[in-house]
Amino acid sequence: MSFRVVRSSKFRHVYGQALKREQCYDNIRVSKSSWDSTFCAVNPKFLAIIVESAGGGAFIVLPHNKVGRIAADHPLVGGHKGPVLDIAWCPHNDNVIASGSEDCVVKVWHIPDHGLIKTLTEPVVDLIYHQRRVGLVLWHPTALNVLLTAGSDNHVVIWNVGTGEALVEINCHPDIVYSACFNWDGSKLLTTCKDKKIRIINPRNGEVETEAIAHDGSKATRAIFLRHGLVFTTGFSKMSERQYSLRTPDCLEEPIVMVELDTSNGVMFPLYDPDTNLVFLCGKGDSVIRYFEITAEPPFVHYINTFQTPDPQRGIGMMPKRGCDVTSCEISRFYRLNNSGLCQVITMTVPRKSELFQEDLYPDTIGDQHALTADEWIGGRDAEPNLISLKDGYKPPESKSSLSVSRRSNLLDKGTKGGKASQQTSPVSDKTLQEFADEIRKLKAVIVKLENRLRAVEGDVTVKLENRVKELEAIVSNKSHVNDDDDGAGGGDGLNTAVLASDEV
Q: pTM of this prediction?
């Protein structure tokens, strides 16, 4: 007699659930760019989505409480001269976001706590180096103000955002860089390139430590570092079959696991949760989200389940663990963009009967405090991320007062003194600003109603005038006919007069 032993895992029954439409974000003009990007970035304060914009590039930033139908005239972040290709929130400041565009410029923005009241066109700092479009922006996981950018000029640049200077220029790629990922402490950099190779690079000097061909297909490849150092990749075979693989950094050319999933054209984006070792595969144009658990037991990558939706996805964003709801055992939350303009919110939950805090589901997770400064990191120091406990939940802090870099003026402190940035950038309370915004929207609605009434009145007056003119024209026409008849009876060429005269004789 044989028995089938079911693998023991606390995530075996994880299920996905889409929130109701009124709890999602609707009427969003999602970007139609063909660039392989997620078009979405999310943190515990804001949701940012790249949108279609005439005359340049823009993205929309929404506070999480602003759900439902988004007004067509909602303020945007719109300072780029070309379409925005990628956006990324700073992991150490939830109010700072970076964007890369086809105009070859990377811009860093500061978003107020209450969101935007008017369109934002002035960035905190412009990072200018690339000669072609910038399709990738990535923040360092532990060092403050360290940002990586990659462009179609095949160059990778690491910046100190606080001073606006380039720290490292990496020129080892012969073709376009598809993706980049730092390891757990930020001491290594993993990149994928159009030449089908994945590379592990020293980010401080740009030296390639090891490289290997990841997937044989010519379409875009993605790769991420797992928490304990392994490398997970997604790509295509020669027959255009989608694959994923698991590798060790010491032997990149020989994967531990190589699995073919299906045949599709959509690039798969691996989204990773380091606390639970779960990998979520989200393909562009797919209507499913597959999720796997990475363990030390064969086959190492264990398929768990698939979340099915009726509509294909255009882009997707993943909430950091500190933004999840620990009271409902939510371990992940996704913001899924549809072609119809709906941003659908999907929660991944572990079913538990107890309402107490589940310590096994929520180990200490990455917080928003940096472990290093930019100078310390470029000087050679490494440090693991600072971890926080979610036992009492996580509340996003107010806008941070400074992002200073030692011994240098910080461009992100523009217009601030004495550590009172939030008071100077927003001298009135958030409630007052929100009241002003509501009043402005009400006034706009009243103006629209008055304009409609004015058009209706103008239309009625025009119709009445036209009818009156037609009546007058008809009267004038009738009178002219009567006069013609009278003239014909009493006038003429004199023959009738002559006949009457002869008769009288």
A: 0.80
| Residues whose CB is less than 8 angstroms from the CB of residue 360 and which lie 6 or more positions away in sequence, other chains included | 10
Q: How big is the CA angle at 43 (ends 395 and 89), to the nearest 5 degrees?
A: 130
**CB atoms < 10 A from the CB of 501, how many?**
9
State the virtual CA torsion across 15, 282, 105, 157 in degrees, nearest 10: 100
CB 86 within 8 A of CB 108: no
Q: Are 230 and 248 in contact (CB under 8 A)?
A: yes
- Is residue 457 very low, low, confident or very high in pLDDT (cuts 50, 70, 90)? confident
Contact yes or no for 239/248 (Cβ under 8 A): no
Other CB atoms within 10 Å distance of the CB of residue 120: 18
SS3 80: strand
- The residue that leads in pLDDT, 133 or 447, is 133
Taking only the tens place, the pLDDT of each residue in 353-390 is 888 889 989 999 999 999 999 999 999 999 999 999 99
Give the burial class of 202: count Cβ atoms within 10 A of its Cβ; 0-12 exposed, 13-18 middle, 19 or more buried: middle
Helix, strand counts (H, E) of the chain: 4, 32
Beta strands in 248-367 (DSSP E): 257-263, 268-273, 278-283, 288-294, 301-308, 313-318, 330-338, 343-349, 365-366
Distance CA 193, CA 196 (A): 6
Residues 269-325 have pLDDT tens digits of: 999 999 999 999 999 999 999 999 999 888 899 999 999 999 999 999 999 999 999
CA distance 247 to 81: 40
CA atoms of 30 and 503, how far apart (whole Å): 98
| Rounded CA separation 41/357 (Å) | 28
* Cβ proximity of 268 and 234 under 8 Å: yes
CB atoms within 10 A of CB 167: 18
Closest to 162 (Cα-Cα) out of 403, 395, 354, 367: 403
Share of the chain above pLDDT 90, in %: 69
- Retrieve residue 395's tokens: 């509340």
Q: Cα 10 to the chain's mean position, in Å?
A: 31
Distances (CA, A) of 277 to 189, 227, 229, 260, 431: 20, 8, 12, 21, 40
